[in-house]
Write a structure and sequence with these properties.
Helix 1 crosses helix 2. This protein has a 4-stranded mixed sheet with strand order 1-4-2-3, with helices on one face. The chain has a single domain, classed as Holliday junction resolvase RusA (60s Ribosomal Protein L30, Chain: A), CATH 3.30.1330.70. By secondary structure, it is α+β, with helices and mostly antiparallel strands. Strand 2, helix 2 and strand 3 form a beta-alpha-beta unit. The model has no long low-confidence stretch (mean pLDDT about 90). It has 2 helices and 4 strands.
Length: about 120
């Protein structure tokens, strides 16, 4: 399944916490995770995919940034957290597929492909 997430700095792992000394998730990060979760749930419903348990998941993606403000690799954790909420599969079962980045000032976004392998763990 493929989802397209609006690009936001809130998914950057360096901006994940509201306070640097306390591990409190920021409101912007939580909202971004909820949005990804909703997109994954909608795709599961559209594709008639039941939410599986403990199955290997391959996640690939492309980060289209409006400028090179931050390292595109910093967004992977946030995307994984959102997919985890939407699928109900812990991200320790995820395999990191191909990830790349590109500058797109007109339409910044994160395109993610999620493959459920069916390989039970």
């Amino acid at each position: 399944m493929k989802i397209i997430i609006p690009y936001t700095q809130a998914l950057n792992k360096n901006k994940k916490y509201a306070f640097r000394t306390k591990k409190v998730l920021s409101r912007r990060y939580k909202n971004a995770i909820d949005q990804i979760s909703a997109l994954v749930t909608i795709e599961c419903i559209k594709n008639k995919i039941r939410k599986p348990q403990k199955q290997k998941v391959i996640v690939s993606g492309m980060v289209f940034q409006d400028s090179f403000k931050s390292d595109p690799a910093n967004f992977i954790d946030g995307v994984f957290d959102g997919i985890k909420e939407g699928l109900g599969i812990d991200d320790r079962y995820y395999a990191l597929g191909a990830w790349d980045w590109q500058i797109d000032k007109e339409n910044p976004r994160i395109e993610v492909e999620i493959i459920l392998t069916g390989e039970l763990i």
